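New to this. Please check both lines:
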Amino acid sequence: MIRVRSDNRVEVAIVGAGIAGIATAYYLSVKHKESSVFLIDWRAPMSYTSAQSGDNFRNWWPHPTMTAFTNDSIDLMRGLAIETDNLINMTDRGYVLATRRADIGGVVAVPDSRIDVDVYSDRERIRKKFPALSDDIRNVIHVKRGGDFNGQQLGQYMLERFRDAGGKQVRGEITDIRNGDGYSLEVDCEDGRRTVRAEVVINAAGPFVRHIGEMLGAELPVKNVYQQKLAFDDKLGAIPRDMAFSIDLDAKELSWTGEERALLAEDAGCRWLMETMPAGTHCRPEGGERGTWVKLGWAYNQRPSEPERDLLNERSRDPQFPEIVMRGAAALLPALTPYIQAPPSRFAHYGGYYTMTAENWPLIGPMGPANTYVVGALSGFGSMSACAAGNLCAATVCGADLPAYADQLSPARYEDEVLMGELQSGVDRGLL
């Protein structure tokens, strides 16, 4: 075990206290018994993008590497659920992928033996099994290894165990990193500037991962795309409380009236709303069987942007999003239709960044400069993959045994021309 040599001299400094940084700290301190670990962030833990998570999980991916990676994360989460008497409220309802197309292969990669699914093609069976879905749905893929969980509870539990194992937190913003005798991180704290000296630096800075990488002399191929969500109090009881996380696989045009279309056509900034919108509208109940809230999402934004410090700023949020996502979701779940004309009185409109590589795979492993590592680019799957991501990063730092997919998820994959050619030629990025 490596010992702390002074209050400001540590073996490992983790930059970022989102779910990925916390998970990495947890596995370093609890599994690998490293007591000399600092977790540094200028925000409270899990108060930025991790706080905006949909908190869903699935092993449905178009490539076996991502399937294996998320399968490992689900196994680790289930272990923590058992350990805590399901403090994290992990369910196993699966994912429902629905399409109006007769040919499933036309909208999604055909499932293989790595992923346990049921496929429903008989409309009568679909109506009985999934009564909330629109009558025009012709095929449903039910991904069995999926569900939802409480990401905040998961992060809080790992954070408490990290602290119990001797880990420390520093609340402050990193303004500079210098490489000399190890790394010197300049941190602006509320009570003044502090220098943290570390032998190892782990970049888990979420949407700011590229910025921290630049401080360390590494260029990371990531972009940030802001995506929005809507949560609302379902006073009408439109969504069954036991409904699985349900996703519309079809592109669609929104159901505007003739008068609404005329008004949209007059506004150059709104004409795009009459065009065909991408697939991916999704919905699930929130708060368990006794709850009344519902979450809606639709990751249709494709414009990269620099991360804002304030996720709730008006520059990022689109005030039209609640109506857009409700209209999109009502095409899959018709019971939501009344909310289009009479929106819910209690709702939360929020959003966060999908920090992603072009191929939508994470970056976990050595970052380039000596003794620097990255655990980032977790896109829209950060919470569900955090356990495997943190476990993999910690194992890499400590020289422990690694899973077969480790190199493929590290920045080293960009040197593998065969793999990158395969990923670049693929259409499905697993983005939901």
Observations:
- The two ends are 41 Å apart (CA to CA).
